[in-house]
Design the sequence.
């Protein structure tokens, strides 16, 4: 996985979530508002937030996925750190 300044980028996080069979959504508006969700419409969302940048979206998705899906391959590959939101 590629890292930028010791943080994972949004594309890397999305690919890792997909590979671990964790569902989610990312959407954005032109004015810098990003919505991130873990889960899906059919089974329900386990967590969601509004953030202000793609990097913040990546950090939130990683930390929240590790908290929500502790037994997932994703959580094993990208564990929580002391600086997580």
Sequence:
């Amino acid at each position: 996985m590629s890292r930028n300044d010791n943080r994972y980028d949004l594309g890397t996080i999305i690919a890792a979530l997909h590979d671990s069979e964790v569902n989610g959504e990312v959407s954005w508006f032109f004015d810098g508002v990003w919505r991130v969700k873990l889960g899906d419409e059919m089974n329900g969302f386990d967590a969601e937030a509004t953030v202000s940048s793609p990097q913040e979206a990546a950090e939130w998705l990683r930390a929240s996925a590790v908290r929500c899906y502790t037994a997932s391959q994703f959580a094993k590959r990208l564990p929580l750190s002391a600086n997580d939101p």
Summary: Residues 9 and 67 are 19 Å apart (CA to CA). The longest helix spans residues 54-68. The longest strand covers residues 44-51.
